[in-house]
């Protein structure tokens, strides 16, 4: 690639901004409007991190819409974080933007618009992990953009537009065998009481500490659990618990499922020693999948599935034969203009 002088780069930004200003606009909006747009429009991509309600107030979420001649073409949420004793501010875009149907051909333009708006309105240091619909080669060509050596987010999706028999037939035989055992022995119920949820979450934290991984934010999970019962169109958390059928006082494990925009996501799960013996994990996950299907959800997201996923969890998820979605990676953009 030929060498670009600083003046050439300035000209690129000026011309780019002139072109964008003709018909396309980015505007910061209130969360109430973001909730409406998120639920009103269909998008070619979707993610829980771009769902209203995912971020805490202290993460300073900013909600944006991109439109063309009054037509909404994309929405996104970014967060702000200060480091080095609040001297430096970094803006974060995580697994977005969400692009409205029939606008996939504009995805590069849309990301450029958002990046330009962030630089002008919030700051010039941008950490971003774009959606799986973006191509790494195009992203790395961006001026002053570095790709970080961090394992990209990946997940596996199960389509729920088939009947239960067909879903079962797509699963590997070994998983079907463990599921059969789990369903025979386990009794599974939805948890609706907040105190019961708190007890389950404490068990999950202890399990995470024992296994050696970082648990999900307790404050976020509490908020998401409350959203489920307040029915406020925000990201919500549904929890199921497994017990031993012959003695329901014996708890075998639990699973937490995020719900947003007709997609469910496997957020966390754990089992006791007895639960592992009785395959409670398989029964819990299948119960969550069937709940989503029976409530007209379109997809079930199995959550993180990349090279950093523990081997046992990776095998467990892979055995369900979902469709992989792989994000291009983590990037950092530094703009001096």
Task: Please summarize what this structure is.
The chain has 337 residues and is of the alpha+beta class.
The oligomeric state of the chains shown is: single chain
Just give the CATH class of the largest domain.
Alpha Beta
What count of structural domains? 2
Number of helices: 11
In whole angstroms, the N-to-C terminal distance is 21 Å
Topology summary:
Elements: H1 6-23, E1 24-29, H2 31-40, E2 62-68, E3 71-83, E4 88-94, E5 98-99, H3 107-121, E6 125-129, H4 136-140, E7 145-147, E8 154-159, H5 164-170, H6 173-185, E9 186-191, H7 194-211, H8 218-230, E10 236-244, E11 247-260, E12 263-271, H9 273-277, H10 280-294, E13 299-304, H11 311-318, E14 323-326, E15 331-334
Parallel strand pairs: 4-6, 12-13
Antiparallel strand pairs: 1-2, 2-3, 3-4, 3-5, 6-15, 7-15, 8-13, 8-14, 9-10, 10-11, 11-12
Q: What does this molecule look like?
A:
The chain is α+β, with helices and mostly antiparallel strands and 337 residues long. It has two domains: 6-153 and 328-334, 3-Layer(aba) Sandwich (Aminopeptidase), CATH 3.40.630.30; 162-297, Gcn5-related N-acetyltransferase (GNAT) (Aminopeptidase, 3-Layer(aba) Sandwich), CATH 3.40.630. The protein has eleven helices and 15 strands. It has helices at 6-23, 31-40, 107-121, 136-140, 164-170, 173-185, 194-211, 218-230, 273-277, 280-294, 311-318, and strands at residues 24-29, 62-68, 71-83, 88-94, 98-99, 125-129, 145-147, 154-159, 186-191, 236-244, 247-260, 263-271, 299-304, 323-326, 331-334. Strands 1, 2, 3, 4, 5, 6, 7 and 15 form an eight-stranded mixed sheet that branches. A seven-stranded mixed sheet has the order 9-10-11-12-13-8-14, with helices on both faces. It starts with 5 loop residues before the first helix and ends with a strand.
